[in-house]
Design a protein that fits this description.
This protein has a single domain, classed as Rossmann fold (3-Layer(aba) Sandwich). It is built from five helices and six strands; from the N terminus they run βαβαβααβαββ. Strands 3-2-4-1-5-6 form a six-stranded mixed sheet, with helices on both faces.
Length: 210
């Protein structure tokens, strides 16, 4: 059985400064560092004696989360741009209010950048859901073939929502009307058995940061 534990990075600066996250290299806040340490301590207890490989987005807030957690597990994270958050193009470097005022397509109610259609790009130069689907599909296929049975993935809300859809085999067109919603510091568990049946047995567990 293959087991993948995903970690959505802990609290970072863009959660407080009203700026766009995306490919900006915001770091963790003091609370975010504390949350990452709590996750690492809890996982070290849960996974005692088990060997894991960790992959992480190379953006600072995910990288820092991975570095803290990995110290508790005695492993070194493998950094990759495949696990980055959505690239929001010209919105990178701007405030969330700027984003609201400069959208180029319809977005989901209550969001500032989650395009309604999988092929739409909310800002000039941004990635669509389809773009992110394609890069994460390639990453997932590679680790399923070339990595061991136990994996940890540290990434971002939007990217992980696409990863979960890929994991359970949703048709991409479903994402025009359906989505997974992540939580800061949330832990999820994905599993595949010997007959290639896949489950998400835990989604966005916040008990690890408490």
């Amino acid at each position: 059985m293959k087991k993948i534990i995903t970690i959505q990075h802990t609290q970072s600066e863009q959660h407080l400064n009203k700026m766009i996250g995306s490919w900006n290299d915001w770091d963790l806040t003091k609370l975010g560092v504390e949350q990452a340490n709590r996750i690492g301590k809890r996982l070290s207890e849960d996974l005692h004696g088990q060997r894991y490989i960790m992959y992480s987005s190379d953006l600072q807030r995910a990288k820092h989360t991975a570095e803290i957690v990995s110290r508790y597990l005695g492993i070194t994270p493998i950094l990759t741009d495949a696990l980055r958050e959505f690239n929001l193009g010209e919105a990178v470097g701007h405030s969330k209010q700027w984003a609201v005022n400069n959208l180029t397509c319809t977005v989901w109610p209550g969001t500032i950048d989650w395009a309604q259609n999988i092929r739409d790009k909310p800002f000039n130069g941004a990635e669509s859901k389809l773009d992110v689907w394609n890069r994460l599909s390639e990453f997932l296929n590679e680790i399923m073939i070339n990595s061991g049975d136990n994996l940890i993935i540290v990434s971002h809300d939007g990217a992980l929502s696409i990863l979960y859809a890929l994991w359970i085999g949703l048709d991409i067109e479903t994402l025009n009307k359906r989505s997974f919603s992540g939580k800061t510091g949330g832990i999820s568990i994905l599993q595949e058995d010997k007959e290639n049946n896949r489950t998400i047995s835990c989604l966005n567990d916040l008990s690890y940061i408490k």
